[in-house]
TrEMBL record, chain A:
Residues 1-7 are cytoplasmic. It comes from Rhizobium giardinii. The lineage of its organism: Bacteria, Pseudomonadati, Pseudomonadota, Alphaproteobacteria, Hyphomicrobiales. It is found in: Cell membrane; Membrane. Residues 29-150 are extracellular. This is Cytochrome c-type biogenesis protein CcmE. GO terms for molecular function: heme binding; metal ion binding. PANTHER family: CYTOCHROME C-TYPE BIOGENESIS PROTEIN CCME HOMOLOG, MITOCHONDRIAL.
Length: 150, 662
């Protein structure tokens, strides 16, 4: 191999690897990310059943019901709209009625119930997930009575 | 009074490091030894001042001096002594002070051990270290002063965040920072070389030990953090692709690349410009990590800093340093003489492949971490980029690297023989296949991908051993000769082999846990049993307990095998009284390399309790492999070539063992 060929082989190999990586990242962004919604957004969103999303809001007071076995159902609300959610498993330590929550999962075709496979409540009792707080604020909901932006 | 002394020491440290930042550069430019020498003295002085300041904050925490705001917010008179200590850095202000302490510690190390460095290089390195130190001490003093006092002294503190009250947290941040901040030395060396306009193989030999030391500590820090999250958060996961984890993982990937490219530069004088760029990039990623974690732009477990003024300040530091270094690079890189041509298939070629893949992987993780922030800023829509994204991209990209790992050390410098290396790896491939299948059958069942992963891991271990076997001539020469040759190999060869073996072990752990883990969520009443991983778990009942600053309800479990009780486990739900915050304390029992993991859920109305039981096969391989990697780093670091700047002696030593390898 000549000097030029050697350099070309290394640069060519490198560039094609990087192009492959960029394509892979773009493909993954189209497949493997979940968008964030609060209940009020869903009517406009027209989601196809089975689309993975993150649903954020407050756990509606009085809505938590333990079914048979490990299944728990509750409603996520932004105080205007509400979405019924079912989840099978152990809820996080800080999951409480009236507190912020983010549920990840999808709607099943022909049902208004959101089936969550992950429920997040973060590690601080005064903490509301930033996404939820922003969206709720944007909708003019007061947060825990402390701040009212209306 | 003592508190004010700590504050004063920090102000003084800023002053001294400002001097250290300016005078040695002039000294180096004019060839004035006296001015250059100021850097050495100032570096030691700054370290002592910051250490004093840190000591004072520690004293305030240990004596529970609630007149200090930082202590009041993050401590409690009742917590155990160890958490009073770890509480010093379990908060934003204290952890920034720890950052400073470690930064100045590294500067002082350069000052003390850098006597064999050329004077101008040493002076410039210390000056660049001082630029960073000045910026961050200014940041602490202006936005995050840990020595602020409260006018009305409260009677009791607000307690340390309960999830942080753990031995893992006591160790994790200092180790992580030793790694993060350790890369600052590589950065300073790179910038100093650019200022000097001169760079050679000796430069790479000086940089390598710092890179190795920082890399080893960062590996340790990440492992600690991963294990801490595993047992403390009670979710049973060991890696979440959380932005904060990524913030430490990106510098690790870049640092690993730097480690390998510095090797090429030291041995072959090639990849000079790239190595300098990588040294800048690695520390830039550390700074970016600090920004992401400390500014609170991310929503995550670690986000305990939420004041935007801090974020903007760090962002300015970030832009100044990264931008400045890259501008300098752009101006000066052309002056650096490129050297050492090599064939695509050669040791250098393999190391280029390593660098290409590691930096691309680091860029991918960075993209995934920053994309939600950028998208939100541009369009307002919010997305979560989680494990599926990273597994798809990072996992696939790393695959060719894992395959290539055993090849690298077997290829010759300059012009290698892929076929020859492949033949020599034949045994490794065979061992990998057999061992992978053996583990697969031992864990019974699982997708085909898992088998492939296990084979890959075993192949990497066997392939790394091949290098040692071939170089010592085991099987070809008399046993005693082979042992002597093995003992005579440079330590860095063992370091390489250990690090690569560790990677293989970690891979086996990851694959085994991902493919063969079992998870049950069951409601249990006292006396009921559940099966996991060949063991039977009997729930014996709940008991109320009380710790120094919490109350708890713990469930007692008996672990039985074939009807005989082999172990007992406790898993509890705690309520930390000061913050009214509940936490889950998982029960973990180790069997060989596998673990049984039990986490308590909510109590049911009928007296039962929801229990989550995991069987984690070979999970200890994940962290064990990383420990082996760290051992590799430490062994490499002890190589005499790195301690003395005498390349000729090292080369002489190596030659006799190189020849019979064919």
């Amino acid at each position: 191999m000549t000097r030029k060929q050697k350099r070309l082989a290394i640069i060519g190999g490198g560039v094609s690897f990087i192009i492959a990586a960029v394509l892979l990242v773009m493909f993954a962004f189209s497949q493997a990310v979940a968008y964030f919604y609060v209940p009020g957004d869903l009517a406009k969103a027209h989601l196809a059943p089975g689309t993975r999303i993150r649903l954020g809001g407050l756990v509606e007071a009085g809505s938590v019901k333990r079914g048979d076995g490990m299944t728990v159902s509750f409603s996520v609300t932004d105080t205007l709209d509400r979405v019924p959610v079912t989840y099978t498993g152990i809820l996080p330590d800080l999951f409480r009625e009236g507190q912020g929550v983010v549920a990840e999962g999808a709607f099943v075709a022909g049902s208004p119930v959101f089936v969550a496979d992950t429920v997040l409540a973060k590690h601080d009792e005064t903490y509301m997930p930033k996404d939820v707080a922003d969206r709720l604020k944007a909708q003019g909901v007061s947060l825990g009575g402390k701040e009212n932006i209306q | 009074m003592i508190i004010e002394l700590g504050h004063y020491a920090l102000v003084l440290a800023l002053g001294v490091s400002a001097l250290q930042a300016i005078l040695p550069v002039f000294g180096a430019a004019r060839g004035d030894r006296a001015l250059m020498e100021i850097g050495t003295v100032a570096a030691k002085a700054t370290f002592l001042l910051v250490a004093l300041s840190f000591g004072v904050l520690t004293y305030a925490h240990v004596t529970s001096d609630f007149s200090v705001q930082n202590v009041w917010e993050n401590s409690h008179s009742q917590i155990p002594l160890i958490y009073k200590f770890s509480g010093v850095w379990g908060n934003h202000e204290g952890s920034m002070l720890l950052w400073m302490l470690i930064l100045t510690f590294f500067s002082a190390l350069v000052a003390v051990f850098g006597h064999n460095l050329p004077d101008t290089l040493k002076a410039n390195v210390l000056a660049v270290q001082a630029w960073i130190a000045s910026a961050f001490s200014l940041f602490i003093l202006l936005t995050s002063n840990p020595f602020n006092r409260l006018a009305d002294v409260p009677g009791e503190g607000r307690d340390l965040n309960p999830v942080l009250q753990d031995i893992g947290l006591a160790i994790h941040p200092p180790l992580l920072y030793l790694g993060y901040v350790g890369f600052s030395v590589c950065f300073s060396f790179a910038v100093a070389a650019l200022i000097d306009g001169r760079i050679d193989a000796a430069w790479a030999r000086w940089v390598r030990p710092w890179t190795l030391a920082a890399w080893t500590c960062l590996t340790a820090g990440i492992v600690m953090g991963s294990y801490w999250a595993y047992y403390e958060l009670g979710w049973g996961g060991w890696w979440f692709w959380d932005p904060v984890e990524n913030a430490s993982f990106i510098p690790w990937l870049a640092g690993t690349a730097l480690l390998h490219s510095a090797l090429v530069m030291e041995k072959r004088e090639a990849l000079k410009i790239w190595t300098v760029l990588l040294a800048i990039l690695t520390f830039s990623m550390s700074l970016l990590g600090t920004f992401l974690v400390r500014s609170g732009v991310l929503t995550s477990v670690h986000a305990f800093a939420t004041d935007p003024t801090r974020g903007v300040f760090i962002l300015v530091i970030l832009i100044l340093f990264i931008g400045g270094a890259f501008s300098l690079f752009a101006f000066r890189a052309a002056h650096l003489k490129a050297g050492g041509l090599f064939a695509p298939i050669s040791r250098e070629g393999a190391l280029v492949l390593n660098n290409l893949i590691l930096t691309t992987a680091a860029a991918t993780v960075l993209t995934g971490t920053l994309y939600p922030l950028v998208l939100e800023a541009l369009t307002g829509s919010k997305i979560s980029v989680g494990a599926p994204f990273f597994n798809m991209t990072f996992g696939l990209l790393m695959l060719p690297l894992l395959l290539a790992v055993p090849f690298g050390p077997l290829l010759a410098w300059k012009r290698g023989d892929l076929l020859g290396a492949g033949q020599r790896l034949f045994a490794a491939v065979a061992i990998g296949l057999v061992a992978g299948c053996a583990i697969y059958y031992a864990q019974h069942g699982g997708p085909v991908m898992a088998l492939a992963g296990l084979v890959l891991g075993a192949y990497m271990i066997a392939g790394s051993l091949t290098e040692l076997f071939l170089r010592s001539g085991i099987g070809k020469v008399a046993g005693s000769v082979a042992v002597r040759r093995l003992a005579g190999l440079p330590r860095s060869v063992f370091g390489t082999a250990l690090a690569h073996i560790g990677l293989g072990v970690t891979l086996i752990g990851i694959v085994a846990v991902t493919a063969f883990e079992t998870e049950h969520i069951v409601e249990m009443k006292p006396g009921m049993t559940a099966d996991a991983g060949g063991y039977t778990l009997r729930f014996d009942g709940l008991r109320d307990g009380k710790g120094p600053n919490y109350t708890e309800q713990s469930g007692h479990f008996s672990v039985m095998r074939a009807g005989v009780t082999v172990a007992e486990m406790w898993s509890s739900k705690r309520l930390y009284t000061a913050r009214r915050m509940p936490t889950t304390e998982a029960g973990i029992k180790t069997f060989g390399l596998s673990q049984l993991y039990v986490s308590l859920g909510d109590g049911m109305a009928d007296g039962g309790v929801v229990v989550r039981i995991w069987w984690k096969p070979l999970i200890l391989c994940i962290w064990g492999g990383a420990l082996v990697m760290m051992m590799g780093g430490a062994v490499s670091l002890s190589d005499r070539r790195l301690r003395i700047g005498a390349p000729s002696r090292a080369r002489k030593q190596k030659r006799p063992v190189l020849e019979p390898a064919q």
